[in-house]
Structures are given as structure tokens and as C-alpha cells.
Amino acid sequence: MIRDPSDLQRYTASERANHWVVGICFILLGLSGLALFHPALFPLTYLFGGGTWTRILHPFIGVVMMLFFVVMFFRFQHLNRMTDTDWQWVRRAREMVNGDDHNMPIQGKYNGGQKLLFWFLALAMVVLFASGIVIWRAYFSAYFGIGTIRLAALLHAGFATLMIIAIIVHVYAAIWVRGTIRAMLYGTVTRAWAKQHHRAWYRQMTGK
Amino acid sequence: MALQSLDIAKRSATTTEPPQARKTPQVAKLIDVSQCIGCKACQVACMQWNDLRDEVGNCAGTYDNPRDLTDQSWTVMRYAEVETDRGLEWLIRKDGCMHCEDPGCLKACPSPGAIVKYSNGIVDFHQENCIGCGYCVTGCPFNVPRISKKDSKAYKCTLCSDRVAVGLEPACVKVCPTGCISFGSKEDMQERADERVAELKERGFTNAGLYDPAGVGGTHVMYVLHHADKPGLYSGLPADPAISPTVSLWKGVTKPLAMAGIAAAALGGLFHYVMKGPNDVSKEIEAEVDKELEGEK
To answer: What ipTM was reported for this prediction?
Structure first.
């Protein structure tokens, strides 16, 4: 469906679908993981059919997320290489958060913050997947020593927390920068949005 | 299956105080390793009382059978042939849950009420609340809990909490033919151990002593060892067991810190939006883009 022929295509249908599979997995993993992490949140297990079902389902959802994340990683990694301009952007990010983006360097499809988030999420996924395998009692824990299992449990909890915080920032940024969420819903953004926030990409797309 | 005759002093994944108006004496089982003849009557009694039947295993060249604790074998005899300054010694230790005063399994368990410590000190698993995650195995400093392959629940010695609740001694104590295992209040057992240790010292075991490790707050299963200076001789009994610092970190400060971090991120977002307003496209740029599009036409 084309809303406005002058809109710019930011994501293909398949990229959007991929992102949403990963997003849904993240939400399910976050809820089930937090349920097993803090006693106050244990009632979240009811969303998954009880404690035992939560324990059974969580790692399988994790595997699905990892598979789709890997695909997404290879789709977007070439667009997320950090450049000098990106580091400049990161150094000035505080000004922008405070409401003044006049001095922000011109950005391509992704700004420095988005790129750093991308690499952090990739790292977190690797750590969470590896440590998750180690603490997957039903199939894999028997192959690891107790010290490794204990460390994996701690890393899993720690990186999951950092990832949840990172995703809150990711989602909030999309809400805060108006006109962004539609890029992940139907794939397009307005030209003005692109020129305002990602001018180098705007130029590349429009030749202006 | 909380035993109504036993109050619960500690409950897994529970942050509020348990009921504690009634006081119960602390109990303990004392295993005098120096009197054990390795007959395995305790293993048999444990199977019989708890309705457990392990698979018939293979002989691996030692008397250890089964070779390790399982969901069906909550206690096993471990036989160690060691050279000491007294020559070759056969050290036989009845292994099983030590019923720590500060239980690592209970600390690690994420499921409310799956692991409890009764007010008398017995640590018990309530399988109907167990979700099968195996965190108890991760938390235990003695490598005791075992997850059943059949039902994925965790099992271990209950110190016959069902028998103790009605004033009986544990099944293994009842059946021990040499009087090597005794059961009573922790105080009485410590006294008995002191007497026995003095006897052993008189007989030349100068390093005899009581194994009641302080690192886990003491245990409700204690050993009299002839070589208390080297617990490792007894098939790897840990010298100074304690809840691993990694587990303490994971189950301690990480939890409030993580909750605070997540809450701060969410609230930070909300208040940022409310105080700074959304990041809209500026009117100037909208006008610029409109002009560019006009030009195209």
C-alpha cells in the first residue's frame, strides 16, 4: 500500500517481518526471564502457563530469537560501521537529548547511537545465547563444570538486564523521534523526517 | 506438601518474613565416619522408606554402588582408599544432603516454596512447586540435588522430614547397625561428637574433629572425621564449603540493581518525553522539502 508517492522506503517487508519476529521473541523472553529472575515478578509465569512451562519455553524462544537475529545482523551490519562522524554524533548526543539538535553532525541511514546499540545488541545476543546454552539444564548443563554454570547464570542475568535497558532506550527513541515507528510498521518515512534526522541518507535516496 | 507440624523458617523466592512465632529445637544428624563399616543399610533404608528404586548399576571396581547420587538414590556410600601416615586407610563416607543452615539451593531457587527450610533446620524440596530449572544444583556447595530425567524435578535427602515431624528418627539412623549415625537436637549431637572426638584423639587420631562447616552457617548433617584437617580425603568432602560468590552476586545485589536499572530506564523515558517534548520535524525542513517536491513537478 502506498500512502504518499514521495515517501521514502526505509525497510522492506521482509526486513520489517524479521524485526518483528525478533521483537516478539524479545518481549516473550523478557517477561519469562524476569519471572525467573526476581521473586516479585514470578507471577509473570502465569502468562506462559505456569513456572514449569516458563522454564521449558524460555530457551526455545531464545533459539528462535537467535536464528532471526543472525539473519537481521547480516542484513544490517554493513550499514552499522562506525565512522568518525558517528563518534562526533555520540559525543554531542547529550545536546540533542536536551532538545537542541542544531549542532549534530549529518547522519546516514543510522546515527552513531543506533550503530552502537546495534553492536551492543549483537554482543548481548552472543553472550546470552552462549550462557543460555550452559544453563539449559535439560539438554546441555551436564556438559559443563559447576564454575562455568555459575558464571553463565550470572552473565545471563547481567546481560539480559543490560539488553532490556537498551531495548527500552531503543523503543523510547522511536517514540520520541516522531514519525519513526511507521518505518517499522509499513516501511516508509516522510522526506522531511529523513532530511531532519538522516540527511546523508536523504541525499543518497533523493539525490538532493 | 508443607508439613503442618513443622514451621517454615526460610522459603525459596520469597522476600517477606515467614511465620516464626513458634520455636522448634534445631535438629541434626551425626555421622561418625570412624564407626562406619560400609554396609549400605542406610542406603537400603532410605530407598525403602522413601519408595525409591534406582536402576541396578554396574560394578566399576569399587564398592560404590550406585556410583553417584541420583533422583532415586538420596544417599550413597563413598569408599576411598587413601595412604595416610597410619598406612592404608579405607575411609567410607555416607554422602547426601548436608542440610546447610544457609542453603545455597534455596538461595538460588526461583520458584516460591519449591525449597523450604523448616524451623528445625531441615532443608526440604517440595516437588509440586519445582519448575525443574536446576538452579538448586547451581547453588549447592556440596553437589547434592539431582534432577530426575523422568519428571525434571529436583530430588535429594529430606532428612526424613516426614518421620521427624511425627517424632521419629530418619530411616538411615534407625537402621544403622553400628550406631554410626545418630539423630537428635543439634546441641546434643555436638556434645556426642565432642566425646567421640576426644576418644579418637586418645586412640592416636590427633586430627580427629567435627565437620560442621561455618561457611554455610553450620550444617544439620555433621560428620565425625578421624582426619578433620583433611576433609578432602573422604571422597572430596569440601574443606571450606560456602555459597559461591558468583551465586551470591547473581542472587544478591544483581536483583535489586537490575530492577532499579530497568525502572530508571522506563521512567527516564517517560519523564524525558514529558519534560523535553517529542522530537518533531521542524517547520523549516518541512517547508524545504515541500519546495523541493514542487520543483520536481
So the answer is: 0.92
